[in-house]
Amino acid sequence: MHALPHDHTGARIKRLRQERHLTQRALADLSLIPYSTLTKTEQGVIPASPYVAGAVARALGVEVATVTGQPYMTELRADELDVLIRPIREALDVYDLGVDPDIRPRAHRLLADDAEALLVAVRAGEIKQVASQVPGLIQEATTAAHTAPSRNSWLLLANTYRTAYDVASKLGFHDLATIALARMDWAAERGSDAVVGGMYRYMRALTYLRAGQYRTGARLVDLGLRTLEQADAGRERDVLTGQLHLGAAVMAGRSKEGARATGHLDEAKRFAESTGEAVDVHWLSFGPTNVSVHRVSVLAELDEYGEAAQAARGLVIPADWPASRRSHHYAEVARAQMWTGDLSESFRNLVRARKVAPQQARYHLTVRETYAGLEAAKRQLPDSFLSYGSWLGV
């Protein structure tokens, strides 16, 4: 059950609830969401927060994507992105078939350069370009790894699977993202790299965050931290360890565990003070800036929207920060400002999110839910607000 024209998350919640013959009071009790919050969400008066979407999905026994309406197929078709998903799925399917006799892989250096370029491109928000190129690279890297197995060839293949994960998750194909991660783990094991293994568990934890399964996500973070203890000491390990703490902080924030979230943020800050800005280490953008950005996100997850907006005011984003990360941050700030009633600034940050990484913003759940929250007050916003909604497809 995916998004329909003029549909919104609240309407989908109502439809799913009625299909199960539940009253609003019954669903509020099952999901542990305040009754007034549920009724206002169904009516479209307030947007569905990630916490509400996850709680409702668990109570109804459905995927979070069913509640949020992802992937947004109408827009994907309009952008000609839907036809790029099947080749990625097919490329992920041939991981264990050995050498493809019809493929003659290029030298490792050339493949590695292409894999790195795609990692950079997806962080620049060039999703369509990456989606069109990654299937062929996966197939070539797969044959290369089976032809001449080595640590480097398996880790190169793991990187291509990571890029497939990035594309699938950004476009809302979370089932495909899960498959890509499983392939990444399969290749990383053959490359015997504890750092990549820790990164896999970080990314897998994010899939459980999106699915509203915070306890499992937290267990994966703990496993990732233990895995990284096996890696050689140094900046690379510190970056991955700090990033895992950031993921754990958001997880704890969404499950409303403020003290645990603060503890993980403090640990991440400690690592960031030693690593400095490490934007290009596995392209995780770790460092003091990312810790500050995650603090804004965590405060919003804890429903401390005023503090989140305040924390964002003095934050300066470095010029070399990836566009995808900047766009995500602007969307988070817009969400906090919308809840505080600062509607004009909220919309300005939605515009910033679009300007920096338009392909990502168009499919970003926070962008869509924040826009839905602003829609009731559109008379207080400029005419460009309606054109923004047309661009989103809502």
Q: How does this model look, in words?
A:
The protein starts with 8 loop residues before the first helix and ends with a helix. The longest helix is centred in the middle third of the chain and has 21 residues, at 127-147. The protein is globular. Among the domains are: 1-69, 434 Repressor (Amino-terminal Domain); 322-394, no CATH class. Residues 1-5 have low confidence and may be disordered. Helices cover 72% and strands 0% of the residues. By secondary structure, it is mostly helical. The protein has helices spanning 9-19, 24-31, 35-43, 50-60, 64-68, 73-78, 85-93, 108-123, 127-147, 151-170, 174-191, 194-210, 214-228, 235-254, 258-275, 288-301, 305-313, 323-340, 343-356, 358-362, 365-375, 384-392.
Brief account:
The chain has about 400 residues and is mainly alpha-helical. The chain is about 70% helix and about 0% strand.
Topology:
Blueprint: H1 9-19, H2 24-31, H3 35-43, H4 50-60, H5 64-68, H6 73-78, H7 85-93, H8 108-123, H9 127-147, H10 151-170, H11 174-191, H12 194-210, H13 214-228, H14 235-254, H15 258-275, H16 288-301, H17 305-313, H18 323-340, H19 343-356, H20 358-362, H21 365-375, H22 384-392
Helix pairs in contact: 1-3, 2-4, 7-9, 8-9, 8-10, 9-10, 10-11, 11-12, 12-13, 12-14, 13-14, 14-15, 14-16, 15-16, 16-17, 16-18, 17-18, 18-19, 18-21, 19-21
